[in-house]
Amino acid sequence: MIYHHIALNIPISDGLLTYAHPEALPAGTRVVVPFRNRPQAGIVWANHVSPEIAAAKILNIQTAFSGEPALPEDWRKLLEFTARYYHYPLGQAVFTALPQGLKEAKAVETPEPPLFYALNGTGRAQTPPPARFHKKAALWQALQHSDGLTLPALKRVNSQAAKLLEEWTAAGWLETKQAALPVLRPSEKILNARQQAASEQIQTAFGRFKPFLLYGITGSGKTEVYFDAAAKVLASGKQVLFLLPEINLTPQLLKRVEARFADVPTAVLHSRTAAGRRTQDYLSAMLGQAKLIIGTRLSVFTPMKNLGLIVVDEEHDGSFKQDNELRYQARDLAVWRAKQAACPVVLGSATPSLGSWHKAQSGAYQLLELTERAHAGAKLPKVEILNVGRLKLDNGFSPQALDLLKKNFEKGGMSLVYLNRRGFAPALFCGDCGHTFGCPNCSAKMVFHQRARQLRCHHCDHREPVPFKCPSCGNQDLTAVGHGTQRVEETLRNFLPQAKTARVDRDSTAHKNDWADLYRRIAENDIDILVGTQMLAKGHDFARLNLVIVLNADGSLYSADFRAPERLFAELMQVSGRAGRAETAGGVLIQTQLPEHPVFAAVKAQDFRKFAENELAERQMFNMPPFGFQTAIRADAPNVAAAMDFLNRIKAELAPRLAGGVSLFGPAPMLMVRLAERERAQIFLESASRKDLHHVVSLWIRALQQNKDAEIRWSVDVDPQEM
Ligand code: ADP
Ligand code: ZN
User: Fold this and answer.
1) How many Cα neighbours within 13 Å face the side chain of 351?
2) Cα 680 to ligand 2 centroid, rounded to whole Å
3) pLDDT of res. 180
4) Which of 62, 626, 651, 700 sits in a 20 to 30 Å window from 243, CA-based?
5) How many CA atoms, within 13 angstroms, populate the side-chain half-sphere of residue 538?
6) Where on this chain does Zn(2+) 2 bind (predicted)?
């Protein structure tokens, strides 16, 4: 018997168990093995291993799907890295990366290789059909100018293609083959000088690893740069992986892809792709049949035969990080993959993540910049910052905001009322001098706990009573932020009863057709005012939109989460970019009680650099990412005390064994302490050295694994995005 390590979808240690088979199965083969008396799908991870347990106890592999293509080595290496880096059982990481069909204990169909028709030598020597039979001539030309085309592509040229191909085959002019270089239509747009320069830089890196940060304001034509570079890669026969946030995978974008890459075999992978389809697309990418793979974070695990370029659009977007189970960051894995495949990777954004920006400043990434809007007439929005500190607000609206909405409605414009809902923990600040309350022990801002009359740090769990006056100016009237936007729609309806308002949030866009409906209504001028959260900030192009009102930006500036200002800035830039995508310059009004805050100055100037310099300087002072690295160890239980106890016990147990170089903060209850009937606490491990941090996290995991208390669940989040 030959012994094999099989990766299984089980939480036991690393998920690799040993099974026997009469002959060696190549690594990557899908198999079925018995596990706890049930057949389970698994992937051969290694063969000829020496068994760790008595040979008699080792069970046999039941079925090997040797007819299916094996999962390739580079893919297995990617999963090994992922499991190691994120401290997650390998077997479960592998199964996260597989599409449904390959997780099941039954065989799947391998996608048929496409058949390409091409003129052979004799064919090419023929006189083409006379031009007056123009459809027939067009088909001939299409064949003449290509390396080979599939029947569907030829039918798009001439609906009678099947019949003509039959004739020409009979005449001995055609050959068929299983692979051909894709046909790329010339772009309808001529790149401007900056776009051209950016694309050329990317092209000089073809065939080797090089990361780029493409920083370009909204509408500066980043997508056209990706397309241009992608077209060059595809023309050389290699594959392109294009990652983007789910919310940006809009019908508008897919139409642009379709227009540009109509004859390129493309797979679109997102959460709504049907399972069967996803499995087939996965396999066809793996076999090199699909050339352009577009998808959301999970597609970073798509095996590719011949990867030539990776693009990560809106690289700063939080949705690239998975926030449960395998907590991977797809953008970071994309860079790792590019290195593995020796190809360039382009991270693009109008508001890059500070991590990527820092790498571009230090030279680790090459910075490419697009500084102007591509569309000749498009203008930058005019941003106004309104100090509402002394104003009486009507459910969050200033009189100025209501007046602007009214005027815009009367002019027939469309407005957007934007609510900032993220990271909302109430905070205390001084309305006179703007003083905020930072933790005396660490870099976090403290949260206001009204009932306990306390300020608490959710990073290190420092607590103190609410002060009576502002420590910097003596003002006794301290204010809490974080309220007053519950009744936005009602307020609007009372104020402008004739205007048609629509709310856009996770609920109103949960169904497949919701966006389509929304677009239709907008196109038919059936919406005057959109009300929504960050969902609206991204990707969507509403030509008529010319006024944006931001009601409550401040919450983020006092947030205990040190990334909140970064997210706020990105959202404000994006949301203001929504105004005036077309010829009319849009207006943006931001209400705030802190008009002097650098974030607003940077938004007003539409200046990411300014923001980034400020924010990075602050992070550096406290060794926060990207200057240091973090891992969060979380525990949840029916009540937070049990979760805190559990973490405290391990902390005490490990204390004598922890070397220097890694700091520990907490445990502290999480900002959003309750989730799904459970309460959560966490400890932060922080270090300037990834290696030291990794080592300490491994020690923690070994201790966590000793947990026998069924009430307690724990998890590890490497490079956490939330506090
Ligand atoms: P971004 O991805 O940076 O937001 P897009 O690529 O979507 O920008 O471009 C914004 C708009 O400008 C789109 O309508 C696009 O068609 C147009 N555009 C981009 N590049 C050019 C160009 N070189 N010539 C003309 N129009 C362009
Ligand atoms: Zn603290």
Assistant:
1) 24
2) 17
3) 86
4) 626
5) 25
6) 439, 442, 457, 460
Q: Which residue, judged by its Cα, is nearest atom 6 of ligand 1?
A: 221
What pLDDT does 541 receive? Answer: 64
Q: Residue 680 belongs to what H/E stretch?
A: strand 678-687
Tell me the C-alpha distance between 52 and 5, whole Å. Answer: 11
- Among 215, 375, 542, 608, residue to substitute to test ligand 1 (most atoms within 8 Å of Cβ): 375
pLDDT by residue (tens digit) across 518-564?
A: 888 888 888 999 888 766 655 566 777 889 999 878 877 877 788 88
Classify residue 617 as exposed, middle or buried by CB count within 10 Å of its CB (0-12, 13-18, 19+): exposed
- Check the annotation: does 343 bind a ligand: no
Amino acid at 458: H
- What's the pLDDT at 585? 65
State if residue 373 touches ligand 1 by the CB under 6 angstroms criterion. Answer: no
Determine the pLDDT at residue 583.
Answer: 56
193-370: which CATH topology?
Rossmann fold (3.40.50)
Superfamily of domain 629-718: Ribosomal protein S10 (3.30.70.600)
Q: Is 255 in the pocket of ligand 1 (CB under 6 A)?
A: no
Burial class (CB in 10 A: 0-12, 13-18, 19+), 140: buried
Q: Where are the domains of the chain?
A: 2-103, 116-177, 193-370, 382-425+482-617, 629-718
pTM of structure: 0.91
Q: Ion ligand 2 — residues with CB under 5 Å?
A: 439, 441-442, 444, 457, 459-460, 462
User: Given the CA of residue 313, which atom of ligand 1 is nearest to it?
Assistant: 2
Contacts (Cβ under 8 Å, ≥6 apart) of 688: 623, 627, 628, 629, 661
Topology (CATH level 3) of domain 382-425+482-617: Rossmann fold (3.40.50)
Q: Is 273 in the pocket of ligand 1 (CB under 6 A)?
A: no
pLDDT score for 484: 47
**Identity at 295, one-letter amino acid code:** G
Strand, coil or helix: 184: coil
> From the CA of 11, how far away is ligand 1's center (Å)?
47
pLDDT at 270: 82
Query: 243-262: string of b/e by CB count within 10 Å (b at 16+)?
Result: bbbbbbbbeebeeebeebbe
- 636-688 pLDDT, tens per residue? 999 999 999 999 999 999 987 776 789 999 999 998 888 888 999 999 999 99
